[in-house]
């Protein structure tokens, strides 16, 4: 492992602490009795407190120093005085341990009394401090000049998502998003629980992936010697529970879909699904808008939210537009009664990329997604989807070509999906078979299996039921004004971290010379490197092999360039 100069110095300090008999990683409990927020909210001059956290800044003033401690609820100012901390002749704890061996980012415990500084700041006068954890890597702390300009901020998105533990420390505002995320889950739970619905758990590993049109992750169970699929949705299991006699069940489920990644999609995501017996999609629309109004108030204290350039209001009621009317409004094309070939031709005429694997439902979905979705900014229910788009949804009571389904659109994105659930086992089998036929045509998102056990459950009878699914990650994006799903996931999926190339010291020396001045004459570079002919040739071959440098020949001139 190659260490930076800072990392080497911190390890040396670690050794010196141990030589002084100080354990940098003590195992015993530290008796914290206050947080920074509690101190500020209930400040009392002279009160004795015990707090703990990370040391985030130090202003050394010789025999005294000011510092800042950051805990889970904010920051508090500390005042270190040598003669207070070290009452006797031995000043090692202040002069050596505090001033020379402590680093920014170290976890320390503080005992002291509260006082007000000359400038009116609330602070802790330290009487004793304890090492709780020595940090071996320096934090990427931003710096602020006298004019308030911030430098070296930790803003690189890839680094922030990959090292969320650092992001949370140096960008404390990030924590607010996840506090609001928890508030959202708590608000939704309380809304359901108050109505008597039951939270349940269903399998993540499934023998048949169902409940959605999506490509699953596949794994293998060694003992049973069978393939298993990671859950793409929990719908079919929750419906089994309705068959079993529960009148209202819900679950916050981790779902997994082996598909693309972008600003609104992560292969692992959290969905909430709820199923209530004896209800239909009209009831569920009213339930949904009241639920989201309740959640917006719980998270932000208001039904209004800002998302990018849009101001969105989650106050009920929401507009209702049929899918047929939406497509007609924004394309002029009426899908009513049209054949698959007619819809495919219409899609092509609109400049939408389609292919022969797409059935009627997928074609309509593409038209709506390309031409209509982005126009719905305020919360809007898109209702009455064509039957081909909804294999688990009850046929519309007034039009056999449609289903009783709605999706809730906000700022051009779907955040909720709901049905009057299909409970006719014969109709359900026919829908599954139609999906299987699409899969055989090459649609890898269509259902590839017929879930015989689910059909058997329906044959035992499922009462009229309405179900609702909400993408929790997307919803919190809208409530916290975050355009990227990675911002609302603690640990989003990332591409593998690039490993540093293991190259020789001679090759590294050449790279450093080219970093200082790129595109140097070959002879000049060789002279600067000071390598023997044999070592020079070996290093240059190594750099070329790893595609780090290239030699440019122009007539008699040869130059070496570092490939960035």
Structure description:
This protein has 564 residues and is an alpha+beta fold. The protein folds into three domains: 5-139, OB fold (Dihydrolipoamide Acetyltransferase, E2P) (Beta Barrel), CATH 2.40.50; 174-318 and 378-487, BirA Bifunctional Protein, domain 2; 505-562, Arc Repressor Mutant, subunit A (Orthogonal Bundle). It has 18 helices and 23 strands. The strands form six sheets. An eight-stranded mixed beta sheet has the order 8-12-13-20-19-18-17-16, with helices on both faces. Helix 7 (173-194) crosses helix 15 (472-480). The radius of gyration is 31 Å and the shape is globular. The two termini are 24 Å apart. The model has no long low-confidence stretch (mean pLDDT 93).
Mean pLDDT, as a whole number? Answer: 93
Looking at the structure, the CATH topology of the largest domain is: BirA Bifunctional Protein, domain 2
According to CATH, what is the class of the largest domain?
A: Alpha Beta
Any idea how many domains? 3
GO biological process, one term: lysyl-tRNA aminoacylation
Domain Aminoacyl-transfer RNA synthetases class-II family profile: 181-492
GO cellular component, one term: cytosol
EC number: 6.1.1.6
Concise description?
The protein has 564 residues and is of the alpha+beta class. It contains 18 helices and 23 strands.
Layout of helices and strands, plus pairs?
Blueprint: H1 5-19, H2 36-41, E1 48-60, E2 64-71, E3 74-81, H3 82-85, H4 92-101, E4 107-116, E5 122-133, E6 143-144, E7 150-151, H5 157-162, H6 164-170, H7 173-194, E8 198-199, E9 205-206, E10 218-221, E11 226-230, H8 235-243, E12 248-256, E13 268-277, H9 281-300, E14 304-307, E15 310-313, E16 319-322, H10 323-331, H11 340-349, H12 360-371, E17 380-383, E18 405-410, E19 413-420, H13 425-440, H14 452-459, E20 465-471, H15 472-480, H16 505-516, E21 520-521, H17 522-529, H18 533-545, E22 549-554, E23 557-562
Parallel strand pairs: 3-5, 8-12, 16-17
Antiparallel strand pairs: 1-2, 1-4, 2-3, 4-5, 6-7, 9-11, 10-11, 12-13, 13-20, 14-15, 17-18, 18-19, 19-20, 21-23, 22-23
């Amino acid at each position: 492992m190659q260490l930076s100069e800072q990392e080497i110095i911190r390890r040396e300090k670690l050794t010196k602490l141990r030589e002084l008999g100080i354990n940098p990683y003590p195992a015993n409990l530290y008796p914290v009795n206050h947080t920074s927020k509690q101190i500020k909210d209930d400040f009392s001059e002279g009160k004795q407190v015990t707090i703990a956290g990370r040391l985030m800044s130090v202003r050394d003033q010789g025999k005294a120093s000011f510092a800042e401690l950051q805990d889970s609820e904010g920051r508090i100012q500390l005042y270190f005085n040598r003669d207070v901390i070290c009452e006797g002749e031995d000043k090692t704890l202040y002069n050596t341990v505090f001033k020379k061996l402590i680093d920014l980012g170290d976890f320390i415990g503080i005992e002291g009394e509260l006082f007000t500084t000359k400038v009116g700041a609330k602070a802790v006068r330290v009487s004793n401090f304890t090492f709780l954890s020595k940090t071996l890597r320096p934090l990427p702390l931003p710096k602020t000049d006298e004019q308030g300009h911030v430098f070296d901020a930790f803003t690189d998105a890839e680094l922030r998502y990959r090292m969320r533990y650092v992001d949370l420390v140096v960008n404390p505002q990030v924590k607010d998003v996840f506090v609001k995320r928890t508030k959202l889950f708590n608000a939704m739970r309380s809304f359901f629980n108050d109505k008597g619905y039951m939270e349940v758990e269903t399998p993540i590993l499934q023998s048949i992936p169902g409940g959605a049109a999506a490509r699953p992750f596949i794994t293998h169970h060694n003992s049973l010697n069978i393939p298993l699929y990671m859950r793409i949705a929990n719908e079919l299991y929750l419906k089994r529970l309705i068959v079993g006699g529960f009148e209202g069940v819900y679950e916050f489920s981790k779902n997994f879909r082996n598909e693309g990644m972008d600003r609104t999609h992560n292969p692992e995501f959290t969905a909430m699904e709820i199923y209530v017996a004896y209800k239909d999609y009209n009831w569920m629309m009213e339930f949904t808008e009241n639920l989201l109004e309740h959640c917006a108030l719980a998270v932000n204290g208001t039904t209004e939210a800002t998302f990018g350039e849009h101001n969105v209001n989650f106050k009920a009621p929401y507009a209702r537009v049929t899918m047929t009317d939406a497509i007609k409004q924004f394309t002029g094309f009426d899908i009513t009664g049209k054949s698959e070939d007619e819809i495919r031709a219409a899609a092509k005429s609109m400049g939408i990329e389609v292919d022969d694997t797409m059935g009627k439902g997928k074609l309509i979905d593409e038209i709506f997604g390309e031409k209509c979705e982005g126009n719905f900014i305020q919360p809007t229910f898109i209702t009455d989807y064509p039957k081909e788009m909804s294999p688990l949804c009850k046929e519309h009571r007034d039009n056999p070509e449609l289903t009783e389904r709605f999706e809730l659109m906000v700022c051009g994105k779907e955040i909720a999906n709901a049905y009057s659930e299909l409970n006719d086992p014969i109709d359900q089998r026919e829908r599954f078979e139609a999906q299987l036929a699409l899969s055989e045509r090459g649609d890898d998102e269509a259902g590839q299996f017929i879930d015989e056990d689910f059909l058997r459950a329906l044959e035992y009878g499922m009462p009229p039921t309405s179900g609702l699914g909400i993408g929790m990650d997307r919803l919190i994006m809208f409530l916290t004004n975050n355009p990227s799903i990675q911002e609302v996931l603690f640990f989003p999926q990332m591409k593998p971290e690039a490993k540093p190339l293991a190259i020789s010291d001679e090759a590294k020396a050449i790279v450093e010379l080219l970093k200082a001045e790129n595109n140097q004459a070959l002879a000049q570079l060789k002279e600067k490197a000071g390598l023997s002919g044999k070592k020079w040739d070996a290093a240059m071959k190594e750099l070329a092999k790893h595609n780090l440098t290239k030699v440019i020949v122009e007539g008699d001139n040869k130059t070496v360039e570092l490939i960035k």
